Amino acid sequence: MNNFKLLTLLLFALFIATCSTRLGAQENELCFDCHNDPELTGATGDTLYVDSKKWTASIHNRMELECVSCHMDLAGFDDWPHPEHLEKVDCSICHDEAYELWQQGIHGLQAQAKGDLDAAGCAACHGSHYIMAVDEASSLVYPTNLPHTCLNCHGDPGLADKHEGMGRAEVAGMYLESVHGKALEKSGLVISATCSSCHGSHKIPSLEDFYPRIPEICGSCHAGIYEDYLQGVHGSAFVEGNRDVPICTDCHGEHNIRDSGDPESTINPRTVAETCSHCHEDMALSRKYGLPVGRLESYRSTYHGIALNLGDISVANCGSCHGYHNVRASSDPKSSIHPANLASTCGKCHPNAGENFATGKIHVQDSPQENILAWLIKRAYLIFISGLIGGFIAYICIDLVAHRRRKRSVGKERMNGGEGPER
User: Fold this and answer.
1) Taking the CB of residue 237, how many other CB atoms lie within 10 A of it?
2) pLDDT tens digit string along 249-293?
3) Is the dihedral of CA 401, 403, 405, 407 positive or negative?
4) 169 near 155, Cβ under 8 Å?
5) 11: buried, middle or exposed (CB in 10 Å: 19+, 13-18, 0-12)?
6) Which DSSP category does 49 fall into?
7) Bridge partners of residue 47, in order along the sequence
8) Of 204, 209, 197, 207, the residue nearest 257 (C-alpha)
9) Domain spans of the chain?
10) What pTM was computed for the model?
11) How far apart are CA 136 and CA 130, in angstroms?
């Protein structure tokens, strides 16, 4: 008897579910009787068209949701057509966790606290009627589509000018030409970093909250490099709270990160010295931390710097000697520029380098305080060369003037009937 009752209940539940599905399909068909018309517009001229085929392919339809599941104020409505202005769809009814995270992020905070209508909500990122599952290639938030979805707002100069915290639109657009963007779009590498990889998805932090986490965020993909950075003088200081030291974005850029082989990269051999000089040529930082100044100028005056300026990118630059991520002080025994390690460091390019190869001073500035003898010799050489070249120029000018005078004299003699002076 109990089994009979249980079977009856199951059949009744199945009957109710079947009826609900049929009723939902009928209600959707009722909506599409009007909204499947491409020419349907509202009072303001906005389209009210909903493509029934695209809706059928959406994740919501595949989950057997109805139009009234989202437009709940129309549930049970029978006086068609319905009013044009409906209640705003509340996605949090089903997606409560994502909604709570969104509320805590910069978009949600802007929308709630400041009533910013431009702040991205659910539909701005996921779409409205044609929402696809996040792991489907046609989804607006699928890795290959996400940058373009974000750029709908962050690449809009009008919105960027209106909202100071968005930054410049052209900066966000640089992502597409970055090493990450090219790997994603041109190579189809969907594991490449996208907007959400760095900024998050629903709980997007403000730039103030985002900045301290940048090394850690980059390290989630570049784990080995992150470990090297933490062991170096820059990373260890940053972990201790020093915000003057460089982090990943200071050297590599933010959205416009490029491969080191790209001539426009900030870490290309042609430009890496200038990148390092942003801090090491800063007088305020030099005074604050007692750092030596004139590193860029002294490098450029060496053979390496001169050769680089002439186009030889194989010569040593800052990273060749000091390292890139695991940069250490010269007093650190593990530093590549520690006296005990210099021969090995130089030996990377100069195989025969011995202990005495790099015993001289590397960064020598052109001042009498650094090396009075070298300073005097250079000045004497410059005076000698300048005098020599100046003498040649003076001799040529005097000779030209004399030649012109002789030519004029010969012309006058001929005009007077003479033969001119003998030559």
Assistant:
1) 15
2) 999 999 999 999 999 999 999 999 999 999 999 999 999 999 888
3) negative
4) yes
5) exposed
6) -
7) 41
8) 197
9) 20-83, 258-373
10) 0.77
11) 12
